[in-house]
Amino acid sequence: MVNLTELSIIRWTICCEVLNMFDSFRDVLSVQEACNALHIGKNTLYNLLKSGIINSIKIGKKYLIPKIYLIDYINKHR
User: Fold this and answer.
1) Phi/psi at 37 (nearest 5 deg)?
2) What is the mean pLDDT of the chain?
3) DSSP characters over 39-50
4) CATH number for the 4-76 domain, one of 2.60.40, 1.10.530, 1.10.1660, 1.10.3470?
């Protein structure tokens, strides 16, 4: 049985792994860069952005996705 301390260490390790996955990406990504990072298509990403599942910044018609929002999305869906 896993105790609370071990569980906290496991969660911390997973968070660090997710952060390391995105080290090579800029702090703010374009739609194409976010698609590459998540290995998903543009239509899927636009659906996630429009529904608010992944947070973003919209300037005019252009979406910008801060890397931290992708990390939040992955951590919520693990």
Assistant:
1) -65, -40
2) 83
3) T--HHHHHHHHH
4) 1.10.1660
Cα-based distances in Å from 41 to 32, 36, 37, 44, 78? 9, 8, 11, 5, 20
pLDDT digits (tens, 9 = 90+) for 18-52: 556 778 888 999 999 999 999 999 999 999 999 99
Q: Which two tokens stand for residue 73?
A: 């999305």
pLDDT above 70 coverage of the chain, percent = 74
> Is the pLDDT assigned to residue 8 strictly greater than 60?
no
Specify the 3-state DSSP secondary structure of 13: helix
What sign has the CA pseudo-torsion 33, 34, 35, 39? Answer: positive
Matching residue, tokens 């976010």: 34
Q: Structural domain boundaries of the chain?
A: 4-76
Instruction: Return the amino acid letter for 56.
Output: S
